[in-house]
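ok so i was messing around last nite and threw this chain in just to see what happens. nothing serious, just curious
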Amino acid sequence: MSKYEQVRTLKLTKARLPHSCDGCGRKIEKGSQYYRESLGLLAKPPGLQLRCYCQDCSKRINANGT
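result:
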């Protein structure tokens, strides 16, 4: 577990480019809404990958608390 795990939150975002969900691999189309990991006010350190999730996976992640 990295030191940034506790400050990671999910932020609702509108897709400007096509993405794929890191939870299930589903394609996120341009213009649709998805959830992207955020560190809040902290600057993202180099090498840290922030994931993006479809709305179904974000509900599952929030329910599990991870």
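not much to say yet. The mean pLDDT is 83.
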